Amino acid sequence: MIMKKYLFFSFFFLSSTIISCTNNDIVVNDLENNDIKCSATIEESMKTYSDLIDSFKKGETRLTNETIYPDYYGGAYIDDDGLLVIWVKDNFDIPIILSENSSIIIKKALYSYNELSKIMDTIDEFKEQSHSLQNLISSNIYMWSLDEKNNRVEVCLKDCSPSAIEEFKRVVTDSPAVVFTRKESISDMWNKVDIIYKNALETRSVINVYAGEKIYAAAEGTSIAKPGSFGYKAQRNGVEGFVTAGHVAAVNDLISIPADNGNSSVYLIGKCTVSKHENNGNLDAAFCVITSSSFAVTNQIGNTGKTYSQFLYRNYAVGSPVFLCGGITSSSGKITSLKVSTEDDETGIVIKDMVKADYASEPGDSGGLVYMTISNINYILGVHHSGTHSGSTHVTTFCPASRIQDDMGILPSV
Fold first, then answer.
1. Best CA proximity match to 45, nearest among 105, 87, 94
2. Bridge partners, 86 (sequence order)
3. What does the pLDDT look like over 11-51, one tens digit per residue?
4. Which of 77, 94, 95 is nearest to 86 (CA)?
5. How does DSSP classify residue 206?
6. 158-194: string of b/e by CB count within 10 Å (b at 16+)?
7. DSSP 3-state assignment of 141?
8. pTM value?
9. How many alpha carbons fall within 13 Å on the CB side of residue 298?
10. Range scoring the smallest mean pLDDT among 79-83, 183-187, 211-215, 381-385
């Protein structure tokens, strides 16, 4: 049996930052080669993680299709050197599936993934069922996520004073696995715009629409529109169209794109036929069909010259590098949590089980494509849901494309 390195340590907590993938002995002239080596290490770690999650999924329940995690498992993440770190709960032997891989780092955990998930469920249920006596406590909870990097549940409070924390512990949960942070960031809020429809026939040629394109959604008969972004090409029940965010496009909304450099003149391109964005739901996605022959949907990623595959990548890990292609922003970052619930500042709607990352976003990016690159193939991960920022620190979330496919019957296409 191959011996591994075990890291026994006392827990401490650091705020998440985007860290470049390097190691201590890199020389300046060799940065490019080291980036390539680091990328290969990350891909190897992602493959190992995917195999591990697939082994867990063999125990899925038939009724819920939920993965059954073994009691020893405390979560996993890819560290800043691209290596896979797996938490194993204290008092459990190291499973053979882990001990035979010398590239895995094992850390001893205080809590299993199942225990942390139950805490997440407790907070979800509290937010769903809170009544008038609990409203002050409930409204103070902004975001809660399963933090696999630190083997904890992180709860972000608007008021993070000692008294507010004590009230949370008294009413919601007093588990020592919960750590608290203060919401210091500003939500990415967008304003509706007044649009003027323009005749697309004057273009005299077919216009390609692609991931990251600015779009506008407006109720039929109105000119007041919500800005958003084109996500990815898809089909539903054999009909071609595209995916964007559910909070951008409601059913029967008319979808348009800018006709020029300004924000007022637009071309009408389609209509939203399906949309999901419900309080305490786990989806924020909409499917729109193209209604004009003057437009064609492509699988191009913005103006990058790159295209995305129609195949989804499902088993991504915390620490995996990701990219956003939105109507305003093109950025990169890392996944920071695979299980996060968040409350919309404006509407109070709670969306559960999103994925959290730290790529930058701006108002108008909602619905944009979130993707990752593995072996030069660009895989769809989902569509951008929300973002907050404080200075250069970003906390962003996206709705997984795998759930959009499984629950809404919307399949990526090229």
1. 105
2. 76, 106
3. 323 233 322 333 332 223 333 343 444 577 899 999 999 99
4. 77
5. P
6. eebeeebbebbeeebbeeebbeebebebebbebeebe
7. strand
8. 0.87
9. 15
10. 183-187
